[in-house]
Amino acid sequence: MFPEVLAALLDRVPDLGPEAVDGWRAAALPGRLYPVLVPGAGRVHGRLLTGLGAADWRILDAYEDDLYDLVRLPLAGGGHAWTYVSPGDGGESEADWSADEFGTRHLDAYVRACADWRTGYETSLADGDGPH
């Protein structure tokens, strides 16, 4: 959703545009700043990233870790896209996540945390420890 997060994680902002998925919602996660997609009534709006290379996917998969499952979903505008969704463990909140609130209150600190994560990720690769 936020180009600043992508820049911190990938060192670039891939092409992105608005898109939506029907039958899902962005749920808040208790004690976390970021959301998870869960099945739900209505439509969730987000950003479709295109032009991702293998290195980008490795970084995103390592970052998302096992908190999410990567699945292919039909897009409201036609076509399909790979997206990270809840693995269905029930840890999500009944409350919807607010992108506006996140952007206003938490984005700057979150971007710094993403940059720190990327530094640790690159260090682990250089040390031969693999992604963490």
UniProtKB/TrEMBL annotation:
Family matches, as SUPFAM superfamilies:
Gamma-glutamyl cyclotransferase-like (SSF110857)
Return the CDD domains for the record: GGCT_like
Give one Pfam family.
GGACT
Q: Which residues form the Gamma-glutamylcyclotransferase AIG2-like domain?
A: 2-97
Q: What does the UniProt keyword field contain?
A: Transferase
Domain of life of the organism in this record?
Bacteria
| Gene Ontology terms, MF aspect | transferase activity
Transferase found in the keyword field: yes
Q: Which InterPro entries match?
A: AIG2-like, AIG2-like_dom, GGCT-like, GGCT-like_sf
Return the PANTHER family for the record: AIG2-LIKE PROTEIN D
From the Swiss-Prot or TrEMBL record, give the protein name. Putative gamma-glutamylcyclotransferase
Organism this protein belongs to: Yinghuangia soli
